[in-house]
Amino acid sequence: MSAIQAxxxxxAPRGRxxxxxxxxxxxxxxxxxxxxxxYAIPDDGARPTPxxxxxxxxxxxxRDLLPRLEYFTDVAPDLEKLLVExxxxxxxxxxxxxxxxDGRIDRPVPTGxxxxxxxxxxxxxxxxxxxxxxxxxxxxxxxxxxxxxxTGSGRHLLAEAGGVVVGGGVALEVVDGTTEVAGIAVLExxxxxGIAAALTARLTREAHEAGAHTAFLTPGDLGIGNVYAxxxxxxAGECVHLSLA
Length: 245
Hints:
Elements: H1 2-11, E1 17-21, E2 24-28, E3 40-42, H2 50-62, E4 68-72, H3 79-85, E5 89-99, E6 113-116, H4 121-134, H5 143-151, E7 155-161, E8 164-171, E9 178-186, H6 195-209, E10 214-217, H7 222-231, E11 234-243
Parallel strand pairs: 9-10
Antiparallel strand pairs: 1-2, 2-3, 4-11, 5-10, 5-11, 6-7, 7-8, 8-9
Helix pairs in contact: 4-5, 6-7
């Protein structure tokens, strides 16, 4: 678990401003207040004092951002209690799932569906718009976000049906044999056909072939967790999101 948290601690700051605040690495994404893109990560074994938690809160308040943390509970088992005592609330508790090369289960691409890497700005724009719609967010994608997607080090994959982009996902860069598979999303009318499983299986295979011995993800709900299990992912822990409104 420590290796996976170290991976997040290494990759989350990419493209973000960072600041050390006590036993926390605070990350801030320029140009967006989105809470999922602005959060702190604790050191392993973190047991911050009330003053250190207060300093972290103030660091986010100064930037008009929601004070927020995301981390795997096993690496800092005492932290949640300390944060709750300081007024933080639990947003959600999500499972962590991992897949090793010998546990991966390949899945066929459904009939009528094509999986491919985005090849143009418009591909990236349509892929991210489909992901955002699937996640209940705005489909409007600016040029800056498209450029960030193009220049990032992840392996993007989109799903297409008759020329319409219906979903996508990404396997982030491999660091010390670890990678994260994220953003798996399929538009509602196309769900239940095995597209998400095929996206996840392809991205996981490509990550393993690129040198990852551990691929991990954090499913947002039980339904998608069952999809990941069919690809070979197994429960390995939990991630918590806490914030102070």
